[in-house]
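I am going through a labmate's work and have reached the protein record below. What it holds is a sequence and that sequence's fold in C-alpha cell form. Please read both lines and tell me whether the C-alpha cells look consistent with the sequence. Do not assume that whoever made the record got everything right. Thanks in advance; the entry in question is below.
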Amino acid sequence: MAALGWLTPRRRSATARSVLAGEASAEAARKSSQETPLAAPEEPQFPVMGDDRAAAFFDLDNTVMQGAALFHFGRGLYKRKFFETRDLARFAWQQAWFRLAGVEDPEHMQDARDSALSIVKGHRVAELESIGEEIYDEYMADRIWPGTRALAQAHLDAGQKVWLVTAAPVEIAQVIARRLGLTGALGTVAESVDGVYTGKLVGEPLHGPAKAEAVRALAAAEGLDLSRCAAYSDSHNDIPMLSLVGHPYAINPDAKLRRHAREQDWRLRDYRTGRKAAKVGIPAAAGVGAVAGGTAAAIALSRRRR
C-alpha cells in the first residue's frame, strides 16, 4: 500500500505568509461585496437646452432626404415639359450612380449642374420657386428620412437654429427647409438678372470645402461657437464641414466617411432599412429599380405623347 501513498493528499502546514495572504484576500472580498456598485456615468444631454450659441447643420442628399434633390427637381421639371426625355434619362443615370456608389462623382455632379443651369436659363426665379413647392409635394416629401428629421427636431426643440447645407440650388433647399420647419438653407446660388436666370453660377457649387466655408461664415455672423455646434452628413466630401464642429455625425455614411468616423470616434446613424449591405455603403437594389422603373415609365409616356 505504500506504493499508493502518492494518491493520498498530504497536509501541508500553513506558513505565516500564506495565512496573511489568505486573510487579506478574504477581507478584500468582504469589503467588495459590501460596497455599492458605481453607477455608469450618464452622457451629457445633447442638444443642450437653451444654448443659443449652438446650432445644427444638415447636409441634404441622402442625409435628410433619400436620393439627390436635384434629380427629384429634374423629374418635376420634366413633367412640366422643361426638357426632353433624353435629359431625364441622363438625370436617372446620375441618380442610379449616386445610389450604387454611395458617393458623389464629380463628373456626374458637374454634368447635372450644367444640365440644370441650361434648363432654367431664361426662366424667372419666382416661377422656379413656385414650381419647387409643387415638386416637393410630388417627389420629395415622402423621401425624408424620419430618423434624421427627428434629429433636426431635437435641435429645434432645444431652442437651436437648424440649417440645411447643400450643393442643390438654394431655391430648392429653402423650400425643403421651410417645409420641414427648419431655420433656413445654404445652397448653390444661380446667377439671375432682373429676376431671370442667366444660366451661370455665382462663384462655385456649394460642395466639399465650400460648405465648410459657408458654415464658418454663417457661424461668425450668427455669433455661434462651432465647438458647441453639430453637423450631419452622409458623404466623405463633407468631412471639412463635419470637422469644423464639436459634434459631428455620420448619417447613412458612405464607406470612406464610415471609416473616417470610426477613426475619429464620431457618432454614426444609419436609417437605411431592409439591407445588411448598409455596413459597406451599397444601397438597396429596390431603390435603383425604382429609378429605372420611373425612367422607363417616363420614356413610355413620352412615346405615347408622340
